[in-house]
Write a structure and sequence with these properties.
single chain; 3-stranded antiparallel beta sheet; alpha/beta; 3 domains; D-Maltodextrin-Binding Protein, domain 2; 5-stranded mixed beta sheet; Arc Repressor Mutant, subunit A; 11 helices
């Protein structure tokens, strides 16, 4: 196995076809096909499934590609440090629940490491996908919360995939409401106060169980429920329908505007928000910078809500 072969399989996965990958790598299609097959034979795995319509990455191939990207990134960092060489686009990906501080830290990361070319991704996605992305090394890290209710289930899944959870901070329950909502003027609200208003939550797909919910107190029955996939839609509905969602209370007015207000919720429990990383993946300067940026914004935003 060589670094060149790893570059070949990563490029092929990114392009989606052998012909496009060969063109981008400036080699012939037969040469690329042979190099990939030799690597598959050596590693005793099938990285790509070949069909009449093209190729798809196998499940074991996704895991292999995760390791391959890590090896290539570490090799690139070594050459940059000791040879002064720069190798094309920097790549970095995180998967996260819907937190403004995650976006702010991502902006800082790009400003610091983006340069002239980069390929960075931030996925605000479902809880199960966050864990899967980190397990398959599609993402360098994930951001989600644990509490007394979901921890037995999520911690078991995190551990089974050789991941670890590191807490960043603990937050008491709050609600996000529109600034025009009558609840926005209260110092705190109760669950009974919320009954007349629509409850908004993030949809979790086939893993739409209480344990994977992004919102604390997910088991409580509510008369009006709306599920959404993205933060912008949720915030628009908070304002347009006088709805609410239950959250950590950490919000950035610069990013989300002044139309959304965080109000403390009188309820038991807390959210331990933290990062999920792979035990077998070495940290790198981009990951370390991003985590430090997270801590900076968490400190700034939590001061604004207390």
């Amino acid at each position: 196995m060589t670094l060149q072969q790893l570059k070949y399989v990563v490029a092929t996965a990114e392009k989606g076809t052998v012909s496009e990958a060969a063109q981008s790598l400036f080699i012939s299609q037969p040469s690329l096909t042979n190099a990939i097959r030799e690597l598959e034979k050596e590693m005793n795995i099938t990285i790509f499934i070949r069909t009449n319509k093209g190729i798809t990455v196998s499940k074991e191939g996704e895991v292999f590609l995760g390791y391959a990207r890590q090896v290539l990134e570490q090799a690139s960092l070594l050459e940059e440090k000791y040879c002064g060489k720069q190798h094309g686009k920097r790549q970095f990906c995180i998967s996260t629940q819907h937190y403004s501080f995650a976006v702010n830290a991502f902006v800082d990361l790009i400003k610091e490491f983006g340069g002239d070319e980069y390929d960075f991704s931030i996925r605000e996605t479902q809880t199960h996908e966050i864990i899967e992305d980190v397990a398959r090394m599609k993402s360098e890290l994930g951001i989600l919360y644990l509490n007394d209710f979901n921890e037995p289930v999520l911690s078991k899944e995190i551990k089974s995939k050789e991941l670890k959870f590191t807490e960043l901070f603990s937050a008491k329950p709050h609600v996000f409401v529109g600034s025009a909502n009558p609840l926005a003027q209260k110092k705190s609200v109760t669950l009974d106060d919320l009954l007349p208003y629509p409850y908004l939550s993030f949809e979790q797909g086939e893993y739409n169980s209480f344990y994977y919910s992004e919102e604390i107190l997910s088991t409580i029955k509510r008369p009006k429920n709306i599920r959404v996939r993205d933060r912008a839609t949720l915030f628009n509905l908070l304002i347009g329908l006088n709805g609410y969602t239950i959250c950590s209370g950490v919000i950035d007015e610069k990013l989300n505007g002044s139309d959304i207000v965080a109000v403390p919720l009188e309820a038991e429990g807390s959210m331990r928000i933290g990062i999920v990383t792979h035990k077998k993946v070495l940290s790198n300067p981009l990951t370390e910078f991003y985590i430090n940026a997270l801590k900076k914004y968490i400190g700034e935003e939590t001061r604004l809500t207390t």
